[in-house]
Design goal:
The protein has 10 helices and 9 strands. The chain has helices at about 5, 50-60, 100-115, 170-180, 190-195, 200-215, 215-245, 245-255, 260-270, 275-280, and strands at about 20, 35, 40-45, 70, 75-80, 140, 150-155, 155-160, 165-170. Strand 2 (about 35) and strand 3 (about 40-45) form a beta hairpin. Bound molecules: adenosine-5'-triphosphate and magnesium ion.
């Protein structure tokens, strides 16, 4: 899950890791993701066999903006190519918040979707429901396009990593997820700690993302509603982990203002729904 929601700094608990250089960023596998030269070694998601097939097919369709799977080991770990570049970690640095960066994320997501739409989804695989589009679909969405999961070079997004939550869905669902994190679709108080400096023009940035992605008029009309739905899905994701007793999510939820923060964010989205629609369609 993603830094904006309930993250820690992603550092491993034991200092120097035994398996290579520990990579910072991410929450679910914090302290468990290592780099060894040109490879990344990380816990494999349950869908790894189907996901690896999909990632290889994306590459055959000309999409180079994702790691290539290299191996899957019996101890439940996977090896992927390391993608050189910069990953923005919270609090997000100014270079990750430029309109150039935002537009490059929109273009990268569009290229992913064009390749993904050309690959038949393996419908026998049990894709995770956690952040999946409840309407389903025939295209595999990434579903977790947060800053920690995008690699930049020269200030532009070049690759998406961490497809653990990928599942079939509508393209607009993935755009809404990306908007949550990259615009970001957060009330000013929630945005302040993770996006320091403030002053981000949310309607304008939402428009920049939609334009750079090339969102259709119909999808633009749907987007504010879908952003509300993705926000509810992320809240439910956190609620499930908290109910399971996950210490990281429990602590982060408490530190971030508890459910009141989610209530505030969701009512802010409702209040500004019409302004977002106007910005997208004007
Ligand atoms: N293939 C890769 N190429 C380059 N960097 C990578 C790669 N895989 C992971 N990283 C780096 O390691 C960090 C953590 O990896 P990853 O996203 O897999 O962790 P995670 O805990 O599963 O994340 P999340 O909480 O989003 O599920 C990333 O934010 C990125 O900085
Ligand atoms: Mg990640």
């Amino acid at each position: 899950m993603t830094a904006e929601d309930e993250a820690t700094d992603g550092k491993g608990p034991d200092g120097e890791p035994p398996h290579g250089e520990a990579l910072a960023g991410g929450t679910v596998n914090a302290g468990e993701v290592f780099r060894r030269g040109s490879l990344v070694d990380r816990p494999a998601p349950p869908t790894a066999p189907a996901l690896h097939t999909h990632l290889r097919a994306l590459r055959r369709h000309g999409f180079e903006g994702a790691p290539l799977p290299v191996g899957l080991t019996a101890d439940g770990r996977e090896q992927l190519t390391f993608v050189p570049g910069d990953v923005a970690l919270p609090p997000f640095p100014p270079w990750a918040l430029t309109e150039t960066a935002l537009a490059s994320v929109g273009r990268l997501l569009r290229r992913l979707h064009e390749a993904s739409a050309a690959v038949a989804v393996d419908l026998r695989a049990e894709w995770p429901r956690d952040l999946a589009d409840p309407e389903g679909g025939t295209m595999l969405c990434h579903n977790d396009v947060c800053p920690d999961n995008v690699v930049f070079r020269d200030g532009r997004a070049t690759a998406l990593i961490d497809f653990d939550l990928a599942a079939p869905g509508r393209p607009v669902w993935d755009v809404a997820m990306a908007a949550r994190y990259w615009v970001p679709m957060l009330d000013p108080e929630s945005a302040a700690t993770l996006y320091p400096g403030g002053g981000l023009d949310v309607p304008l940035r939402l428009r920049v993302l939609a334009d750079s992605y090339g969102l259709s008029a119909q999808e633009r009309a749907e987007l504010p509603e879908v952003i509300g739905q993705t926000t509810a899905a992320c809240r439910a994701f956190v609620a499930t982990r908290v109910a399971e007793g996950d210490a990281v999510y429990r602590r982060a939820l408490a530190e971030r203002g508890g459910w009141a923060r989610w209530d505030r964010l969701q009512s802010w989205l409702t209040t500004h729904h019409a302004a977002f629609t106007t910005a997208l369609l004007s």
